[in-house]
Each structure stands twice: as structure tokens, then as C-alpha cells.
Amino acid sequence: MTKTMVLASAAAMALLAGCQKAEAPAPTQTETTEVPVETAMPADTVDTAAESDPATAPHRFASWAGKWTGVEGMYVTITPTEPEHYKLEMQSDLDTKGTYDGWDSEHGIKFKRGGEELSLHRGNGDDTGLKYLAGKKECLIVKSGEGYCRD
Hints:
By secondary structure, this protein is of the alpha+beta class. It has three helices and eight strands, in the order ααββββββαββ.
């Protein structure tokens, strides 16, 4: 063994010995206190203005509010009402015009029309299946052949 290797080995052994002798600091005692997590805001901090004003109430699809146009004069106008609910004014075909109550769902706004439960959901003009709406980017679809887009 060369003199350099012996010195390196000795230095490594000393370093290891120093590491083994060092003791970990003693753990300090800490106390934990469980604090219940509140799931609702206290009554005195609730914003009553937001509860009474539909424009500021929580709506999952608030950005959809306003008028959307379809083909041949068809349209839907979405108005937020109470939290998670909407008023849909809709001309869905030449003979069907009405106002429907809508509500938030996982993928869109659900509503009932003629006893059938339907849903407005996000898509594009090509997804509507309507040639007139092809190429449009911001649309809502009810079903194939029925959709509304923003210009």
C-alpha cells in the first residue's frame, strides 16, 4: 500500500469514527391540540348580499350567462337565478319556444323539456352536427342537431 493510500484510509476512518460518536439531539417535547375543522362559515360572516343577488350567487356555469344563437332564429338565453339554478329561455325549433328551469350538473346545465331530461354541455360548432355552426369554437350542445354558439 502506498503512503497516500494509507493516509486516505486513515482520514476516512477518522471521519467515520467522528460520525459514529456524534449523538443525535434529544427530541424536544411538543404538545398537539386538536382543533375541529369548520365546514361552514359562521352565520355572522356569511355575505347576505351574495345570497340575495343572483348575479353574485355561486353558479358553476356563470360564464355561460347571456344569449347563444343557433340556426334559423333558434336561440337560448341563460340567466343565473338562485345558487346553482338558471332560467333558460329557448327557441329550440320552429314550433317549440319556452322557458325552462335549469340546474348545475357535473358536465353542464340540466333541464326538462317536454318531459325529457336534457343537458346543455360545452362543445364546438362541428360537435353540433349543424353545417351553419361548423367552425365555431364556443358552443353549447343539447343533442345532435341542436346547438347554440356565441358569435
